[in-house]
Amino acid sequence: KVKDEATGIEIVLPGACSQKDFNSARKYKAKDSDVFVCSYPKTGTTWLLTITWLIVHHGEEIPKNYTDSIPTLEFDGCENIEAIDDGEFPRIIKTHFPYKLVPKNLKAKYLYITRNPKDAFVSYYFHVRGFNSVYHWKNPDLSNLYELYIKGEVTSGLFFDHLKNWYAHRNDPNVLFLLYEDVKQDPRNEVLKIAKFLGDEYEKKLKMDDGKILEIILERSSFSHMKGMSAWHTTYRPENEPFIRKGVIGDWKNHLSTEQADGLDRALMEHGKESGISKLWDK
Length: 283
Ligand code: A3P
Description:
Elements: E1 2-3, E2 10-11, H1 19-27, E3 35-39, H2 45-56, H3 66-69, H4 73-83, E4 92-95, E5 109-114, H5 117-130, H6 142-151, H7 159-167, E6 175-179, H8 180-185, H9 187-198, H10 200-220, H11 223-228, H12 258-275
Parallel strand pairs: 3-4, 3-5, 5-6
Antiparallel strand pairs: 1-2
């Protein structure tokens, strides 16, 4: 758990992030050209990062170690991020920070992705199991982890608070609010939407040559292509617990009890009353 002195916010971050890293991350001043990829864990962050990277790099082949070159605000901290020289490209920065803690700049861009909490929880369960060497919970039981998840006693705090606070800014001109389910159901439309948000020049590039770059981006960000890449945390994860795991909508049905599914639905309804987040997965 780390504490932010300025806001009083306390937050649980993965063990690899110390209070020192956190303090350093809070010092980072966003540049006009920065692109932040923001999310609560397990909602499609890596997918959105990949799409964003591909758009910014005009569909170029994804380098094997490219996730290493994309800093995570809370792990890498201010000095390391400032030291990155991306040349002509905007800096892409990943973060699971809640809205309040993300460095603000009216010209920088903030992409936020979210996902049905039932699938996000199941994905988190497999994530923690796969990162046994990093998390302090060793091989957690799904029902024990559920009890912590529903109370927000997990990495990045309560799913619903994170979502609510970002959702309140969904119409800010420099925020693009995305649903994992929309990207899954209509990736073409969502990739074009992201490109347009990043800048007309990116959208134009995607459409050139009868949309050749768009096709390349769709292929290189597809589940099968990403699963086949070896760049995903292989040092930590055993082969039978891949980071790019299943990538579907509704996997919760295979893992959650009726009570657990209802509990997450109820929590969404309660938190959605005023904020409107309960309607996000109505369609
Ligand atoms: P599952 O565990 O349900 O498979 P994050 O990057 O925020 O940790 O999210 C990880 C989740 O996104 C995992 O979900 C992973 O499989 C899924 N994912 C990653 N790339 C994907 C892609 N190209 N298409 C669909 N899902 C993807």
